[in-house]
Amino acid sequence: MNPVLQELLVCPICRRKLSEDGDELVCPEGNRFPIVREIPRLFADALLAPGQKETAAAFGYSWTRYPKQNPYTEEQWSDWVHPLGPDDFAGRLVLDAGCGLAGFAEYARRWGASEVVAVDLSEAIDAAHERLGDEVDLVQADLHHLPFRSGAFDLAYSIGVLHHLPEPEKGFASVAKMVRPGGQMCAWVYGRENNGWIIHIVDPLRKHLLARLPKAITKWAISLPATVVLWPIVKLAQRFKRIPYGEYLRWLGARDFQFVHGVVFDHLVAPTSHYIRGEDFAAWFQRAGLIDVRISARNQNSWRGVGRVPEEAQLAGEHPAARADAASSA
User: Fold this and answer.
1) What is the three-state SS of 268-316?
2) For the whole prediction, is pTM greater than 0.85?
3) Is 234 exposed, middle or buried (0-12, 13-18, 19+ CB in 10 A)?
4) What is the pLDDT of residues 126-174, one digit of tens each?
5) Other C-beta atoms within 10 Å of 6: how many?
């Protein structure tokens, strides 16, 4: 195992340091976790919230059937983490919280990160390893109970994952707690604003019907025909500037059919999805004690934000996100 990664790891149950014992990691309390195909599997079923395994299984199904290539362009990556740029990543120890195929982790490394640790609860972690090998450090873990020393990372990001957690703000606080004083936290979530048709029409169908169907049926018998219908619309949106949902449709229209099919499937298959108001998203950063917060709308239907852990947190002896984490659990 990479010595840098091993130094970061702690037991997700007792929070004590782990040591290698053959093909397992073991803590002083006797909790044991396997290392399978070079990936530490550091989660405990007993700690998972209701529905969390089902959501992970849905996205695992999606990513393990996606071609083993980066699903994102560097332009997309740059847009999601705006206003961060290569200088924010250069030489930094970075946490990718909810990595899927680790496409973002690949760009974080390209932007000069000294080390990227990418985490996912789903079996997508194996597809990421197949795609990238040792280019990034991969860990199968639960974002609510991350198996790393608090304050270990220079920068953490979670793109498109927190809104699929049972308790999105608790997940945000958990990730922010991994960032050192002076480090930065970046996140992107579905917005509630301008997504009324999804919230009132698509979401009830997803929740009560589509997410309960066999995933193959949802992918091929439902989301594929829906994509065929959507495809000419997103292409027409390139020509007509003043149409409802125009900015998002134009963004989709610049991608290939396979990518759009994946987006449609993601919206229909996840057992858990939340749509977050901008004011609530901003409050996550505030309650986590982050400063220099910058929130911006993306495609007018989602929110991205960046904040910094104050240097004073080091002197106070308690990471500010720990208070937000405790408050969201109360």
Assistant:
1) HHCCCCCCECHHHHHHHHHHCCCEEEEEEEECCCEEEEEEECCCHHHHH
2) yes
3) buried
4) 999 999 999 999 999 999 999 999 999 999 999 999 999 999 999 999 9
5) 15
